[in-house]
Structure formats: structure tokens, C-alpha cells
């Protein structure tokens, strides 16, 4: 029987292998697919561009029929890489309302939930890592004296 998942598909240029990688990926890798960009204020505060979405984060929708609306993340569907936001619903033909699934790339995080200490550690770790990298880059260069 063929392997269900392989990291080698990630390095392929072929769209079918890229789709296969995403579809067959285990949940710990699919978690990385549900990341969204931070707002400009949060980006400046935490020094990073994107963060994994979690329940209760506040997001703004920037694409699609619900563009401009904001709400709290109600559910994160790792299997299908979709996000469900409170208040973003559609009415079905039978009259029931259902949550509308959104792609994480169409959202901007406007407010993070930092109840989880692990998440705060992750944000702090990245922040300190960036500072040390900048310090390494800014080291003065020794000038060599030419004998003339």
C-alpha cells in the first residue's frame, strides 16, 4: 500500500503533489495551514507577520461576501483548513442558518487571546529571537589598515 503522507511532496513543483501534501497531512502539520496575518498594530507590537488562529481571536474579513465584517473565531476546522466566525452565517433553502466557512488567508487578526501561557511564550520567543538576529547583523565591521 502506498504511503499516505510524505514530506517529499512539499518540495515538488507539481500542483497535484502540493494538493496531496495538504490533503493527507497529519493534524500537527495542518495546524500550520490555519495562520492569518496580524493587523498593523499587532505586527508592530509582536514583531511578526502571521500567527496561528485560535478560538476566541477577533478577526476582520478582508475578502469575499462578508468583507469588512469582524467577529470572534467560533471554530477552527483543521481537517478542512477552514475558520468559522461568530455572526457570519448564511440562510439555507430550508430556512436554517449555518456558519459560513472562511479561508484563513482572507482574515486579519485584530485581537489575540493570550489566556494560554504557551501562546504568550511563543510570541515572546519570536520577539527575542528577532532582536538577537538584528544585533548580530549590526555588529561593526573591522577595517583592515593598508600599508602604504
Salient structural properties:
about 150 residues, alpha+beta, six-stranded mixed β-sheet, two-stranded antiparallel sheet, 4 helices
What does this molecule look like?
- The protein has 148 residues and is α+β, with helices and mostly antiparallel strands.
- The chain contains four helices and eight strands; from the N terminus they run H-H-E-H-E-E-E-E-E-E-E-H.
- The chain has helices at residues 15-24, 27-30, 40-46, 117-137, and strands at residues 35-38, 50-52, 58-61, 70-77, 82-85, 89-91, 97-99, 107-111.
- The strands form two sheets. Strands 2-1-8-3-4-5 form a six-stranded mixed sheet. It has a two-stranded antiparallel sheet with strand order 6-7.
- Strand 6 (89-91) and strand 7 (97-99) form a beta hairpin.
- It is extended and about 90 Å long.
- The termini are far apart.
- The mean pLDDT is 88.
